[in-house]
Amino acid sequence: MSRRAVHLCSWDGGTETDQDPPEHVYCGTEGSMEDEQLTNDWRYVTCKRCLRVRAKELSTRAAEDLDRKVRLFDEAHAITTTLGHGNISTALKCLIRERDQLRAERDNLREDRDGLLEAGAHLL
Ligand SMILES: [Zn+2]
Fold it and tell me: Is the pTM higher than 0.70?
C-alpha cells in the first residue's frame, strides 16, 4: 500500500459539540481522509497541490511586500526632497542632530529657569 499524501489542514480538533474535521483541506482536495493524512504543520505536508498553492501564496505575498516597500520608500523620498535633503539617509541624520540640539537647548533653558526660581524664591 502506497503512502497517501499528507495535506495541510488547520483543523484544531474541533469543539466538544463539533468534532468533525472540515470538508476541505488547504488545497481543496475533497473526500474523507485519515488523521495521518492531515497536518497543520507545513513540515509534514507531502501533497504537491498543497505545496504548489503555498508556494504561489508566498510568492504573491513577497511581491506585495516588495510593492509596499517601494511605495513607502517613494513616499519617504518625496518628503525628504520636499524638505530639501538629498536623500533619506542624510535627512534622518540631519533630523537626529537637530533633535539632539533642541533637547540640549531645552535642558539648558530648564536649568536657567530653575536657577531663576531659586534665586527669586525669597521674592514670592
Ligand atoms: Zn493537499
Answer: no
- Distance from Cα 70 to the centre of ligand 1, integer Å: 34
Mean of pLDDT values over 83-87: 93
Domain boundaries, the chain: 1-59
Q: Which of 64, 63, 44 is nearest to 25 (CA)?
A: 44
16 alpha carbon – ligand 1 mean position (Å)? 26
Cα 81 to ligand 1 centroid, rounded to whole Å: 50
Q: How far is the CA of 28 from the centre of ligand 1 (A)?
A: 7
Q: What is the pLDDT of residues 7-19, one digit of tens each?
A: 999 866 666 766 6
Q: How far apart are CA 40 and CA 31, in angstroms?
A: 18
More confident residue, 123 or 74: 74
CA of 87 to the centre of ligand 1 (A): 48
Distance of alpha carbon 121 from alpha carbon 116, whole angstroms: 8
> Residue 4: which residues within 8 A CB-CB, separation 6 or more?
33, 34, 37
